[in-house]
Amino acid sequence: MTVHAEISVIPVTGSTSMSREVAVAFDAIKKTQGIRVTLTALGTQMEAEDISAVLAAIKAAHGAVKKAGVARIISSVRIDERLDKDQSLESKVRAVKKRLA
After folding, report:
1. Which of 47, 54, 84, 94 has the largest count of CB atoms under 10 Å?
2. What is the pLDDT of residues 10-40, one digit of tens each?
3. Which positions ≥6 away from 59 have C-beta within 8 Å?
4. What would you measure as the largest C-alpha separation in the chain, in angstroms?
5. For residue 85, pLDDT beyond 80
6. What is the CATH number that goes with domain 2-100?
7. What pLDDT does residue 14 have?
């Protein structure tokens, strides 16, 4: 079935800008096999067939940010594992928009 996840990586660097480290994390997630990704202003959304791919992407993001030299990483992760049917991130948005029409 389908697993959706959203991760927000917050590198603690002493600067108010985080775009360099966020780009490094996003690139690592994007390179993870079996993951479809969408970058948003507040995080990265992931879609996979298996939770292990999502967890591998999270691990890759943390590893990449560590290699970028930060002293601390705080991440917020939400996972939605739907077991009764396949559903894409896009179809979830369409379902809400349909009710708004």
Report:
1. 54
2. 999 888 899 999 999 999 999 999 999 999 9
3. none
4. 48
5. yes
6. 3.30.70.930
7. 86
